Amino acid sequence: MVRNLLCCNARCGLSWQYIVWQIYENRLDWFKLEEGRYILLEPDADGVIRSAVFAGLWLALPALQQGNFAVVFAVLQQGLQTAEHQAFVERLEGRV
Question: What's the half-sphere exposure (Cβ side, CA atoms, 13 Å) at 19?
């Protein structure tokens, strides 16, 4: 069922991302739609994955996996303070 939904989104030209958090395996996979296919996003050298769709949505993967939510929230706040996030919010509010 998930596979059919993802294929439909790809055919419709939607810009989608999705996250699969496998709690028992302590694994998180973040995918984005690119050229009609979903690809796995890889964290940067600091272990942070940055959304390509929602500017400023940053996730500190190792901190999340270790349950260090103070770091998870701190990294998220860093992303939300960026100019890219502010521009994204303004577009959503119809100001740009």
Answer: 14
pLDDT digits (tens, 9 = 90+) for 49-66: 999 889 999 999 999 999
* pTM listed for this prediction: 0.76
In angstroms, rounded to a whole number, what is the distance separating the alpha carbons of residues 19 and 2? 12
Which candidate, 96, 58, 91, places its Cα nearest to that of 77? 58
Taking CB atoms within 8 Å and a gap of at least 24, the contacts of 1-8 are 6/38
- Say how many residues make up the chain: 96
> How far apart are alpha carbons 14 and 16 in whole angstroms?
6
